[in-house]
Amino acid sequence: MKTKFAIAALSLASVISFGASAASLVSNEEAQHGNLQSMNQTISVSGNDGDQTNIRQALSAKADAQGAGHYRIIESHFDDAYHVTAELYK
Description:
Elements: H1 2-21, E1 24-25, H2 28-33, E2 38-47, H3 52-65, E3 70-78, E4 82-89
């Protein structure tokens, strides 16, 4: 019983810490008028099934891996599959 509780607590803590350090989505206006520095890098995600939340989480994880604090979606296509490209910012 204690093991299950510990695993559940660690899982919850990792989700909370991921959300706290995750790169955030910014608007075009925030990117232009904020104090954000472009990294001159893009990332993209694609797949067959994906909702907006899962796509944002995947973009945030990729942005984190590149050392970005923010990302701005610059291209998105949704048909039978999806493809989203974002520019990275510090």
